[in-house]
Amino acid sequence: MKYPVLLHALFLFVFSFNIIPAQTNYYSPENIKKFAQNLYENENYELAVGEYLRAIALKNTDEKCDSLYFRIALSYCKLRQPDNIRKFCKLALFDSSDSRIFSEVNYLIAYSFFIEKKYDSTQNISTSLFPDTFWNSQFKIMKIASMLKQFHWQSAIAEANTSLQNINDSSVGASINNLMNIGIKGTKLSLKSPSCAVIMSAVIPGSGKAYCGRMWDGLYSFLVVAAMSWQSYEGFSKNGISSGRGISFGLLGLIFYGGNILGSFNAAKLYNISKQSELVAEVNPVISW
Description:
This protein has 289 residues and is an all-alpha fold. It is 75% helix and 0% strand.
């Protein structure tokens, strides 16, 4: 009875040795691509790029690699490297004859400008590059978002109104309406006038900063300018117009006075930027590829 068992075990060993390795070629482009995809899904994006490049190198020169270039571009999107996103998107477009990925690749190029905060470049991309309805609508959302990021409220509202006329998808329409509402809120923001802040601080040092919500900074400016002015006055009163004390504190007072006016102007600008940035903080169109 022992011999049949041994023969059966030997048969399984020979079968495994000859058949299984032949079926599992870990160095084939397809298996490397699967491994790269696994790395991507586990957020090992840099390693995924290396494996995708290795899969491309192992393919025949006449074989299209557009989808692999696109996967590399997506990896660089996750790594927030705009230049590399555009580099591999262009390679995907050059290598591809598949019109289905045309819109998606161009959207990723537009998105690379968006994450790089080159909002003008995003807006300058033509909608004709998005023949696919889904990606065309997604690009319109990004275009409106880029206008909001620049605080161009009226332009964003106008673009949203135009886009809504050609949108049939309710979820896309809801997204555009949400962005338009942000634009409307932007037009109603209570902002500070830099000119007003300058005039106030010129009349009463520190009042311009207080007007911009920086009470302690304004009070400090007022006390410093007031103290310098008083010391200068005391010096001139006791020693006349040639008083070193009067001249020294007078010059210091003028410097602080000028700095207080400039600081009030900047305080108004920073206040406005802060309020506007807070409003558009959540305006970040993201597609889960």
